[in-house]
Amino acid sequence: MEFALLNGNIIKRSDAKIDIEDRGYQFGDGVYEVIRIYNGRMFTIDEHLNRFLKSAESIGISIPFTSLQLKELLDELLLKNNLETGNIYMQVTRGTAPRNHLFPSGDIMPTLVAYTIKGVRPLESLKSGVKAILTEDIRWLRCDIKSLNLLGNLLAKQKASEQGCFEAIQHRGDDVTEGSSSNIFIVKNGTVITHESNHLILKGITKDVILDICVINNIPVQERTFSVAELEEADEVFLSSTTAEVMPVVEINGKKVQSGVPGHTTRKLQELFEKEIENQCGVLLR
Ligand code: PDD
Question: For the domain with range 123-280, which CATH number is right: 3.20.10.10, 3.40.50.620, 3.40.50.2300, 2.30.130.40?
């Protein structure tokens, strides 16, 4: 039997039901997190919980649990579902109230849900890399909030998929921002470059782990805006996310990135990233 977390209680997943006037359902009025599980353990859990609480706070939702309480509940959920490898999906909405654009007055309880999803690491793609398209970033200007409103991201991802690609690399005019569900990195002359974490992108947890790895291992790194032309002329391109880890991008808009195979720095970062997973979650099966 599968279990889910609903407002602090772990219940049968099939019993977890949300009201049709939940503001998440009607307005996308809420925020979420995806947390990776390796060997039954949560990777970078503190960072995910901090971002979750911060995203919620930035839209005025106050989650009635501390980070520690959430961690304990998620641990219990993992145990009950006996999850070895996969993800936890967690979201909170402003709660249930008669439909009105205005925030409901009075004390409505946010709706907090979490459940687990089995899933293996994308080993084949990690080895050979993935293809991407370029597309204009049509999203709002608070991409730093991990909002449930993902329409812009969905349209971009769908377009990529329809062209046989894994990801859509978005740009605002000349500036590359991020993928539809990932952060984007280029490597030029040995320097790793990725967009600064501001309102135009999500401050990826994986991105931050990679930046730390670069600093610790003396790999030159810059957090700055880079152009579509720099992307097209890059020595290496890769993307990062909780589920995709350090994923080489070997083709963009039908044109190979250099020779079309994952580059040296990307490989090195994959290795170091796996070490970090193993530090936190134990030895990985390969
Ligand atoms: N997506 N940018 C966007 C728009 C994202 O949706 C994500 C993650 C990232 C990478 O963030 P992180 O490294 O913290 O996962 C960047 C998740 C995995 C998703 O929506 O499924």
Answer: 3.20.10.10
Most ligand 1 atoms within 8 A of CB, residue of 242, 247, 273, 277 to mutate: 242
Strand ranges inside the chain, DSSP E:
3-6, 9-12, 30-38, 41-42, 86-93, 111-118, 130-136, 167-172, 175-179, 183-188, 191-194, 221-223, 226-227, 236-241, 245-252, 255-256
For ligand 1, is residue 91 a contact (CB within 6 Å)?
no
pTM higher than 0.85, yes or no?
A: yes
Give residues with Cβ within 8 angstroms of 41, minimum separation 6.
280, 281, 282
Q: What is the pLDDT of residue 15?
A: 97
pLDDT of 184 over the 90 cut: yes
Does ligand 1 lie within 6 Å of residue 241's CB atom?
Answer: yes
